[in-house]
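go over this chain:
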Amino acid sequence: MNIFINPDNTAQGSLYFYLTMCIIKDGKYINPEGDNSEIFKTVPDQFPMNSPKSSKNSDNIWSACLEYAACTDIGLRRTNNQDNYAVVPASSQEEWNSRGHLFLVADGMGGNAAGELASKLASDHVPMLYKKKVDQIPSEALRSAIIETNDLIHKRGNSSDDFRGMGTTYCSFLFLPDGALIGHVGDSRCYRLRANLIEQMTFDHSLVWEMMALARQNGEAYTDQIPKNYITRCLGVHPEVTPDIEGPFPLKPGDTYLLCSDGLSGQVNDDEIGKILYSLPPALAVETLRDLAILRGGPDNITVVVAKYLGAQKAQGSTDDQVASSVPVIKKPFSKSLVTLSIIFLLFGLCVFPLYKPVGLIVSALSILIAIILSVLALIQRNNGDSLKNKSYGKGPYTKTSALPDESFAKTLMKLISDVRPEAKEAIQNKYGQEASPVWNEYRSIEQAAKTAYEHSKFTDAVKNYALGLHFLMEQIR
């Protein structure tokens, strides 16, 4: 993703747009027509790997029922990291019951400082605003939080020439008692692994996806000549934005959700993402996916967030009767129109009674009766409240691909390992000296397990062990 565009009336097929002067990530021009997916045949002699930022749950109140991990990396070609992410599990059982767990990724655009600031504002403010909106159901609270954050970024951008035109993609999911809810603007993605299928749950707000949808709608052939690095929606560039809300999708034990910036999805195919998620736990999956993107050139910042739902969310120390099966109903404010009409009829009845007897008595009684009925209706409407239950947003999932490890992917990992192995072996020797042999033998045992599984056509085990071996080697280089 390189350039933001503003499409006008794409649904009608008349796409005209202006290019904002915000080249992504490092402020340097990258030919939007060029192919940035170069794959390294071998590992560069000097790997300019920055220490990636990462987080994972090892021991918290949700560790028995929720597994999550995240990492972000500058990649190989950027001068700074304009990606940000947030992992915000509920702080208590009560908070889970009403607000759930929030995970998000934001991919900034603009000059170096501008894009980083925009994505940082998104990752900081959306969770904060969302949790404050306790008077709204989660879907509306999330929508409001995204819209308010867009306004904040836009105003901040207009406050300084250095930040003008800055923006960021935004993609998040909530785990809630009613299911998984997704909020989305831009081309950062949300995937779900369920059983052996990897599904893209978000629609890319990009020129490519908009044109593909338009071609399908009109029954036309789609051309793949459209540049892939134009996005049609983001936070901050314009004073108003329309976020997509998807879900809620019922949660099943084992469901694994993944968020990523296009630094991953641009280099690693959907089926490959699925096969890694299928084979490895979240903590290893996020790092292995990052390594795959780096080995294929790492042309962009890479951010991956993964959360695996293990079952009913019960915080340590909570009792079964404290665990909600659905998000509570939010009471609506009183209807202003009903309350106003009720007051008008009440005042009218009180004024008419002393002026017109005996007809005034009848008119007054009817007016007061109507006022009472309107008041009861206002009270019933408020008490009925609003709930996420039985609501449905969006049209996802948008793609479905098999995530079952196969011979082809095992060969892919095998080839990557053969490219990385010499550099890693040298790194191990330099790092451990005379103690290098035990470390290298540890790797060799993993590789041998992978080869044995491959030879017996046990491709799930082969992929798992090759992925572990690749991760092991990359850690030595890093």
User: Anything to note?
Assistant: The chain is about 40% helix and 15% strand. The first strand starts at residue 3 and ends at 4. Residues 7-50 have pLDDT under 50 and may be disordered. The domain at 3-322 is CATH 3.60.40.10 (Phosphatase 2c; domain 1).
